[in-house]
Design brief:
The protein has helices at about 25-45, 50-55, 80, 100, 150-165, 180-185, 195-210, 225, 255-265, 265-270, 290-300; strands spanning about 70, 85-90, 105-115, 115-120, 130-135, 140-145, 170-175, 215, 230-235, 240, 250, 275-280, 305-310. It has about 325 residues and is α/β, with parallel strands linked by helices. It has one domain: Alpha-Beta Barrel (TIM Barrel).
């Protein structure tokens, strides 16, 4: 989409916490570091880790505990079933009880798209039209966003996340962060700085909301810049993906594609304190044998798997045995 005016790249939205105070002083930075440490300790307890380095630090099957997690984007669900997971990722428009699901200790995170917006989403009418790019043809009704715009950053930090926080969510899954880097590759001159702006927005989320868990779905190009301010990565379609016309619409990725993704995940899997990688694969719910195989293969890579159908609107338990 042709821009009528360039984005403001020099002024960023005010950094806020849920209480509305800025994070500036050295004392506050120390407090923020302590909160990050506490947040990651909670993750370790949630996973019942015996030793953090042995769980997150290898692609081989050396994990002594597994993080049980789920992504569910339906409006209603069996909340008792959801509460059995360690981490639950929901659409922020979920109609059930977020606090009810969390009573058993589950950390409930809200999905938040930072690089794209759906026309069906109520927030679409609040988005600055000059910040919109063309439609994403893979997802009709979804428009890409110029993440450099100050108006978009302000909407995310001052409206969207506070609304999520007020509903009882204790974490975020930041999605569509591949989009800014993709747009910058398409037009290196016109879209210069999109990747940098995306990384800075992730850092702003962490500074503004230090008590929230922050997971990032893919966004691999940003990882070297943001590993110190996220709590883990969702590796969507690591081993399998949706392929129309094959095996009911699902298929295995080529080994070269898997190896490429693992190399991009290296900044989180091989850092001094490795972060959890939550793998999200897609497969036919009526094929438990293959689903079981996907779980085994992902754990052998050092990931914490969940296997779902493409729309993520059903709870698909791990096959027994």
């Amino acid at each position: 989409m042709q821009q009528s005016m360039g984005p403001d790249l020099t002024v960023s939205p005010k950094s806020i916490t849920p209480s509305g105070t800025a994070v500036k002083s050295a004392a506050e930075r120390t407090k923020r570091d302590d909160e990050v440490t506490l947040r990651r300790t909670i993750l370790k307890v949630c996973c019942t880790l015996l030793a953090a380095s042995s769980v997150w630090g290898s692609w081989s099957c050396t994990a002594k505990a597994h993080l049980k997690w789920i992504a569910f984007y339906g409006q209603t669900a069996d909340e008792h079933a959801l509460s059995s997971y360690d981490i639950v990722i929901l659409d922020p428009a979920f109609q059930g009880s977020v606090t009810g699901i969390a009573k058993t200790g589950a950390r409930v995170c809200a999905y938040l798209s930072l690089g794209e917006v759906r026309t069906s989403d109520p927030l679409y009418n609040q988005v600055d039209r000059s910040a919109l790019f063309g439609e994403n043809n893979d997802w009709p009704g979804t428009f890409r966003i110029d993440i450099r715009y100050r108006s978009w950053k302000a909407l995310v930090l001052e409206k969207l996340i506070p609304d999520i926080y007020s509903k009882g969510f204790t974490g975020l899954l930041l999605d569509t962060l591949d989009t800014p880097s993709y747009l910058e590759r398409l037009d290196p001159d016109g879209n210069r700085g999109m990747g940098q702006a995306a990384a800075e927005l992730v850092r702003e989320v962490r500074r503004s909301f230090p008590n929230l868990l922050v997971f990032m779905n893919r966004g691999y190009a940003l990882l070297p810049s943001v590993t110190d301010c996220i709590d883990g990565v969702v590796a969507e379609s690591l081993l399998t993906t949706f392929i129309p016309g094959e095996n009911g619409g699902y298929g295995w990725n080529q080994p070269s594609e898997v190896a490429h993704q693992l190399s991009l995940l290296s900044p989180v899997m091989h850092r001094h304190t490795p972060l959890p990688v939550l793998s999200l694969d897609y497969w036919d719910a009526g094929d438990p044998g293959t689903i079981k195989e996907i779980y085994a293969r992902e754990r052998a890579l050092g990931c914490h798997p969940y296997v779902a159908t493409r729309m993520l609107d059903s709870i698909i338990p791990e096959p027994a045995g």
